[in-house]
Automatic annotation (TrEMBL):
Phylogenetic placement of the source organism: Eukaryota, Viridiplantae, Streptophyta, Embryophyta, Tracheophyta
Keywords on record: Ribonucleoprotein, Ribosomal protein
Name this protein carries in UniProt: Small ribosomal subunit protein uS2c
GO function terms (MF aspect): structural constituent of ribosome
Pfam families, per database record: Ribosomal_S2
Length: 85
């Protein structure tokens, strides 16, 4: 798999609220390596790690799409419907 440069900006991720995770009461202990802190009952996700995994995922999707693979994108919130449509 070829590594590519994806323009992933940590400041834009912060503005988009990517760092907000699940509430501290509803968390899965397997997520502990990805959580950097807790604030006001919400886990704060480690954005540096998230950006690295997002870049790797973009590489995988790009390679699969270039081979003609198809994708099903599912959103769980109404707000996401316009982005997916």
């Amino acid at each position: 798999m070829t590594r590519r440069y994806w323009n992933i900006n940590l400041e834009e991720m912060m503005e988009a609220g990517v760092h907000f995770g699940q509430g501290t009461r509803k968390w899965n202990p397997k997520m502990a390596p990805y959580i950097s802190s807790k604030r006001k009952g919400i886990h704060i996700t480690n954005l540096t790690r998230t950006a690295r995994f997002l870049s790797e995922t973009c590489d995988l999707v790009f390679d699969a799409a270039s081979r003609g693979k198809q994708f099903l994108i599912v959103g769980t919130k109404n707000k996401e419907a316009d982005s997916v449509a």
